[in-house]
User: Which sequence fits this backbone?
């Protein structure tokens, strides 16, 4: 089966990393009117009729110019302008998060542009959150077509970062047997019926597999043995790289000590199918890696989503 979350990173652009410091080449490409620019005010964007509004380089405002890369003959850019511009026109600028549904729908800015948008979101969030040098407090100045920030006082460069987060489907029982079951949890703040795979951040000095085991134990009291890699999904809101795993439980008793997790349950495939069909179980949406993990274990598509 194909995994819908991969549509968000399918068809990647050529990031042209080696050309980011070639000022003559950057100026020549910027002068080409076919270039496409996503304007981001702080971390907000203007919606267009079918998703995000891209403008030509000639129509782009002044700001921090970010080279996203090339796809075919077209060069793709982002320009980051101060967040105050969005505050002055709150109706025209929306949080990028609210426009994500357009990325997986196949309409407008469908799956094809998602890697460009995620690249732009990640850099805009990074610029927004990194105003001052973490070593000396000096002012940070962009370079390398928006992919580096360098301190004007001490010269130390900063690079964009991605924080590894693990997301995992834990199963118990004999693989493929009718009573094999998987563990899903729900957050205290979610609407009724919503359940998802467990997830959490990897800590310093910790392997990804150990992060899976620790998070599951902390959130549900379930002990996990074997852990195998499934796939990954960038999630730049603000800077996560979601690393998906399948894990096998070696204990099944659930104990809820973590305040974040309100409930956790084991579901057989039959229970999952019935409850998803009647709406008592609401699973994550199609472009999330969580959905892909669940459907991979289930063995096919399931009805309903957030
Ligand atoms: Zn500094």
Assistant:
């Amino acid at each position: 089966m194909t995994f819908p979350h991969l549509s968000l990173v399918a068809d990647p652009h050529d990031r042209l990393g080696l050309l980011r410091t070639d000022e003559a080449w950057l100026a020549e490409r910027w002068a080409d009117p076919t270039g496409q620019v996503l304007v981001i005010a702080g971390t907000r964007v203007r919606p267009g009729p079918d998703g995000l509004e891209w403008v030509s380089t000639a129509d782009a405002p002044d700001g921090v110019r970010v080279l996203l890369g090339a796809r075919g003959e077209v060069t793709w850019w982002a320009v980051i302008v101060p967040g105050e511009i969005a505050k002055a026109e709150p109706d025209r600028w929306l949080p990028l998060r609210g426009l994500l549904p357009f990325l997986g729908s196949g309409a407008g800015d469908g799956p094809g542009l998602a890697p460009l948008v995620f690249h732009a979101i990640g850099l805009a969030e990074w610029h927004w959150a990194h105003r001052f040098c973490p070593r000396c407090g000096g002012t940070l100045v962009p370079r390398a077509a928006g992919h580096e920030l360098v301190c004007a006082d001490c010269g130390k460069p900063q690079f964009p970062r991605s924080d590894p987060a693990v997301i995992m489907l834990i199963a118990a029982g004999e693989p493929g047997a009718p009573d094999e079951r998987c563990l899903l949890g729900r957050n205290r703040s979610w609407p009724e019926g919503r359940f998802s795979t467990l997830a959490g951040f990897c800590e310093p000095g910790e392997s990804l597999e150990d992060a899976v085991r620790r998070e599951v134990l902390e959130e549900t009291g379930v002990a996990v043995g074997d852990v195998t890699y499934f796939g990954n999904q960038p999630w730049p809101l603000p800077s996560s790289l979601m690393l998906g795993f399948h894990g096998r439980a070696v204990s099944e008793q659930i104990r809820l000590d973590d305040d974040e997790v309100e409930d956790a349950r084991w579901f057989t495939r039959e229970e999952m199918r019935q409850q998803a069909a009647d709406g008592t179980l609401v699973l994550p949406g199609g472009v999330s890696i969580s959905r892909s993990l669940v459907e991979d274990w289930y063995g096919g598509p399931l009805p309903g989503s957030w």
Q: What stands out?
A: The two ends are 21 Å apart (CA to CA). Residues 114-129 form the longest helix (16 residues).
